[in-house]
Each structure stands twice: as structure tokens, then as C-alpha cells.
Design goal:
Order of helices and strands: HHHHHHHHHHHH
Structural class: mainly alpha
Number of strands: 0
Distance between the termini: 21 Å
Largest sheet: none
Oligomer: single chain
């Protein structure tokens, strides 16, 4: 936000930013309800529809926002296309595993993965971007690792769903951070890359009379087609919010999404919540508390005049 902007306008912009970002995280937090409504549809078929209809919706936005030239320029740049092909693989794996986990009764693990994600981002920044960890950050990461080890030893099974979701989304964010492409145009290209094989897969399902679209019910058809809007709208809200509020505020608000998943899993869908899971989440929440307080302090110190 421009520092020369009048205070009253800055205040309005900040409020609207909190609203947009809050809407994005709220939608992501309650998204399991949407995916659960299509529980009888295979996860791969849901993801395929999500990709295809997201591309249709996003292309409409590209045209409305007059970013066609930017979109075409990326298609003419092999290096950028190669980078986006890699991010496409990561985000498609993330979407597929997340929808499968929600519909297979592993929503708690999915929420754990998105709680861990900020700490994974810190770790990736240290390894690949050579960012130095402050002591509270290091403590938070170590506590999160201890939580994962504790759960693995107690249950005799690695929480692979949570770790895979956190790592795929973390690496996706890392690559997109250094890729010279905006979020809207980049996501449009990513969905384009997946749309070509996606359409072929849907045609194959239809030829075998195995596809759900137009063969189940009108409500199911609406849900499948609506996956495009359901994917793009929170992303747009997130982008609108991110431009209007401080990064520290955005960082704290991101916990709305996994908290929504957590509450839905325990209260609405009755996933078993054991003492081991309770201690695991408590350790993760403590780590996130340390990380968040440190991030706020670092942001305030950076904003002070020297």
C-alpha cells in the first residue's frame, strides 16, 4: 500500500483486505463440505473437473482483466513453461491427495498438513534460499518435528498425508515465489497444462459410460462444473486481500483454513480424536504460536526507524 495514501483510505483498504483474505481462508476452511458432497465420485475425476472448469473460469478472468498479452508471452517462453509444468505437477498432486483424504475420512491429517505448512516454508527457505533462522523460528520447527516423531512412534505410522500435503504445497510456493509470473496468469497456465490430458481422461470415462457428469443428477453436475468457480474465487479473494494488508496479518489469518477443517473433522464428521492426536496438535499449535509471535516482533522491528 502506498505510504502517501490518506489515513482514512488506508483504514478502508485494510478493512477490505481483512474481509477479502478472511473470505478466502473461510472458503478454504469449509471446502471439505463441498468435496464431501461429491464423495461417491472418484477423487481423480473430481480433480480433473476442477482443473478443466478452473481453466474455463480463469480464462474468462484473463480476458476481463485484459491480461491476454501476458498470458501469451508465458506460452512463448519455454523456460517459464518448464517451471510451471513442475508447479503443475506439485499442485495437482496436492489437490488429488487433499480431496482423497477428505473423502476417505482423513480430514484431521489434512488439517495437520496445512498447520505444518508455514513451518515447512521456513525450513525450505533455510535450505534453498539460504535464509537464516531466528532462534524462535528454529525452536518452532524443532517442536513441529518432535510432534511428527511423537505421532509416528505412538501410532506406529508416519503421518504421510499431512507431510505430503505440507511439502507439495511448500515446494509449490517456493518455486512460484522465484518464478517470474503472477498468481492469476500462472494458475491459468498451470490449469491449461492439465486441461489437455484432463479432457482426454473425461472423454475416455464417457466412452466407457463411467463418467459422472450428465449421468448422475443435476445437482452433481452443478457441483462438478462449480469446482472451477470454487477454486478461483478464494484465490482471487486472497490476492485482493494480500495487496491490502500487512504480511504479518495475512500470516496469522492463514490458520483459519486448517482450523475450519479441524472443527469439521471432529464436530461435524466425527473423525476419532485420540489423546495422541490431541498432544500432536497441541505441540503444533504451540510451535505456530512461537512462530507467529516471533514473526510479529520481527515485522514491528523492521518497521521501526533506525
Amino acid at each position: 500500500m502506498n505510504p502517501d495514501t490518506p489515513p482514512a483510505r488506508r483504514h478502508r483498504e485494510a478493512l477490505s483486505g481483512v474481509f477479502y483474505a478472511g473470505m478466502a481462508f473461510f472458503i478454504w476452511g469449509v471446502s471439505p463440505v463441498y468435496w464431501k458432497a461429491m464423495q461417491r465420485v472418484p477423487a481423480l475425476e473430481i480433480v480433473t473437473h476442477r482443473v478443466v472448469w478452473s481453466f474455463v473460469f480463469l480464462m474468462g478472468l484473463i480476458l476481463v482483466q485484459r491480461r491476454w498479452a501476458e498470458f501469451k508471452e508465458i506460452l512463448k517462453t519455454p523456460r517459464t513453461l518448464l517451471v510451471l509444468a513442475l508447479t503443475t505437477l506439485l499442485v495437482s498432486c496436492n489437490w488429488l491427495l487433499y480431496i482423497w483424504a477428505v473423502n476417505a475420512g482423513h480430514m484431521l491429517q489434512a488439517s495437520l498438513g496445512y498447520y505444518i505448512n508455514p513451518l515447512v516454508n521456513v525450513l525450505l527457505g533455510m535450505v534453498f534460499l539460504r535464509e537464516r533462522l531466528r532462534r524462535p523460528q528454529a525452536l518452532a520447527v524443532l517442536l513441529a518435528c518432535a510432534a511428527v516423531v511423537f505421532r509416528t512412534v505412538a501410532h506406529g505410522e508416519l503421518p504421510w498425508i499431512a507431510l505430503t500435503l505440507a511439502l507439495t504445497f511448500g515446494v509449490y510456493g517456493l518455486i512460484r515465489k522465484v518464478a517470474p509470473v503472477g498468481s492469476l496468469v500462472g494458475l491459468t497456465v498451470e490449469t491449461l497444462i492439465l486441461t489437455i490430458p484432463g479432457l482426454a481422461y473425461l472423454v475416455l470415462l464417457d466412452s466407457r459410460a463411467e463418467g459422472v457428469l450428465f449421468s448422475d443428477s443435476r445437482s452433481m453436475d452443478a457441483l462438478l462444473v462449480g469446482t472451477g468457480v470454487f477454486t478461483a474465487v478464494p484465490l482471487l479473494c486472497f490476492n485482493l486481500g494480500a495487496r491490502r494488508i500487512h504480511l504479518s496479518t495475512l500470516g496469522l489469518m492463514q490458520y483459519i483454513a486448517p482450523s475450519g477443517m479441524f472443527l469439521l473433522a471432529v464436530i461435524v464428521y466425527g473423525e476419532p480424536f485420540t489423546a495422541v492426536q490431541g498432544w500432536t496438535f497441541l505441540m503444533i499449535w504451540t510451535a505456530l504460536g512461537i512462530y507467529s509471535v516471533d514473526s510479529l516482533r520481527a515485522y514491528r522491528r523492521a518497521g521501526q526507524p533506525h
